[in-house]
Amino acid sequence: MVRTREEWRQAVESELPAPERYADRNRVITARYAGWYLEHPHIFKWAGMASFASRQVGVAILMAELLTRPERIEADALLLSLHRFGADRLLLADFEEIRQGNNNIYRDIAWAHAAYIAGGIDELMACASETDDANLIAGFGMIDRGRELLRRNENDHEGERLVWEGNIFLLRHEQINVLQPVFDRLSPAGRLMASFGSELDFSGTKLSDFRCRASFSSFHGYFETLAGLKSVTNPADRWQWVEKSVIPAWQSADREAKLEWSARSELMAMAAGQQGIVQRLSALISAFGN
User: Fold this and answer.
1) Which residue in 52, 85, 105, 186 has its CB near the most CB atoms, within 10 A?
2) How many CB atoms lie within 10 A of CB 242?
3) Where are the domains of the chain?
4) Per-residue pLDDT tens for 32-56?
């Protein structure tokens, strides 16, 4: 029996912790993305990239925890200073927007991955809305056509091209249609924070491999970013960075997956729901004084 879109959406969201458990919710979302990529590395390129981006959102969640719980950090002068820095709550609202963006993306696309895994493109199309989900249908359609070609020949160049084209289509949909309204609501300080905080390292090594690293501020220039001439909240600036830096960095890391890839251990840890340093600190702050 084919599920409706809302039934699929309820199924994937029922696995998430309660909305007020910010750090845990982010950790589970990150785990789902990483798990999908590890289970289907030849077709779910977007999910692998999204797991690293979602983990980065954990930094914003940590900062939101610091700003909302000053009574739990009074003993630490550094953390207290961070709270006083954001005491006007302007940055807190920005952190909340970024956190909500993480939830919005999961709500928009997680059900489609789950439906496709369960029943392929037929299941997805049967329960999708032709108007609301047209972009997802188009992206997964390209992925599915590429998948069929790769089933016949794992080295089929057209199949690989279609898979990447479909995943990039999903990426553009999420960036422009889902994430842009979040960026539009950020304060000027929040936009600057988001620009300098847009750093992705897919290498998984202690000594970062520049081929697998993408930094918005270094791509567009530190002065240009600081002066607001370039901003990750500007869709044209962001997509130029994504297209010219993020995607090539992830493609380079993805190719390494066929060999010995140190980032695989990071993805496996994320998929297992293991907490990184940021998540552990956030959980500690949340628990402090409970």
Assistant:
1) 52
2) 24
3) 5-287
4) 999 999 999 999 999 999 999 998 8
